[in-house]
Structure formats: structure tokens, C-alpha cells
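Please, structure for the following, as C-alpha cells.
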Amino acid sequence: MAAVTTGNEEHAPLISNRFLTRLTVGVAMLAGLTVAISVGGRMLGERIALAGHTESTAAIDIVIGQDQIRLPANTIRFEEERHTGRAERVDLYLTWPEMNGYSNGERARFNDANHPESLIFLNLSQSTMSRDMSGRLEPIYSHLFDDRPEPGPAGLTRQPLKENSGYGGEVFFTGILPDGSDYAVRCMIPADDAQSTSADCQRDIHIGRDLSVLYRFSSRLLPQWQAMEARVRDYLGRSLVENGRAASAIRSR
């Protein structure tokens, strides 16, 4: 029996409206997914590029022991430390000699290990000793020197240590600051200058009421020891908060 055809069937569209609707929805979803991937990829790429850094200069108020210090977020080295409130310690990194925090324009300086003289690193914590490094020079460190001082950079005196001092291959450099107080810094001098790191030398000072500041720098910066001491003290002195205002003076022990 022959199939009966109608005029409507002869003129039916090859692609139904339902199919077109589904196709349009599918294309829209694919386009949306493409945009989402593009935006998400860009955001992820930017986050990876920052590698824990931030360009934010928002003020972070941190209380350590008896001291409150106000710091731009981009000077705080670790993301988990960038929050207002009480903390046991905070780690900073600053460009040298500008004393600025991270910025995208200076990204190479923060990521280039071949130029450690571009940055200095600071650790702030509550004091656990009554004297800072300068204060320990005469009663403690001087007894460890082997009495063969040598000229050091920029007016410093190199103080080799006795073999039984327990400090290994380290050496001290001592000097006199412009105000007449003692200066002392402890260093591990690399055999080859190309092996210098941002932790070759370290010195600790006391500021504020009860704050200990350990700052580390490349041995390449030893000739600039006086300028570094002055700028570290000035920067942190201006960052200290006392009675709601930044303190202009710091206390050295």
C-alpha cells in the first residue's frame, strides 16, 4: 500500500526550530565558557606572576609585644602575614637604597637572585635579649676575636674569630657610628663574589619599646653600612605608631 503524503510534509523545514534552539544555546554556552576560561586564565596568570607578592600599599597595623607598627602591604614578604592585628613576627623586604616595597615595575629586582644587593630583608619580633648586637660587642663578641684585626670596607674593622668560637667560617665587622656608638655586623663572606646572597650579613638592633629588628643583606653592600643603618632606623622609626601617631624617635640599646 503506498504511503500517503501531504502538502505539509512536502514543505517541512530540513532543520527544525527545536534543533536551532538547542544549537543557539550550545553556542552561547561555549562562548561563555571560552570567556570564563580566558578571564580565569588571565587572573591565574597574574597570580602566578605575582608569586606571593602584592602591589597594594594599604596600611597594615601590626602589634608585636609592646609595639605597634604600620606598614604598607607590599613591604610585607609573606601573604599570611599581611593582616592587621597581633603577631609574633613580621618579615619585610625592601629595595635598596630606595626602601620601597614590591611593585610590578621592580619585579625583576625581587625575583633576580643574581643581584642580591638590590634588596634588604628585615625580621621584626619581640626582643628576647636585653642588648642588641652593638650592645653585645664588648661583653660577649670581643672575647671571641682572635686579636688579628684587619682593615675592612668603608672604615670597618674585620674581626676574625677564634677557631673554637663556634661561629664556623663567620667573621665580624666593627665600626663607630656617627653618634659615637658601636657598630657590629656578622657575616659569612663568600669565597667568590658571584656567590653572594641576600643573607651574607646580618645585624640586629632594638627600636621602639621592645622590638628587635634583624636585618640581612648582601656582603656587596658592606661599603654602605652607615647609610643602611641610618635608613633602616629612619624607616622603622617613622613606621612605629605611638598614641595614634607615627613615632619620630627610636630607642637604641
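The radius of gyration is 31 Å. Helices lie at 7-10, 17-50, 107-111, 133-137, 225-239.
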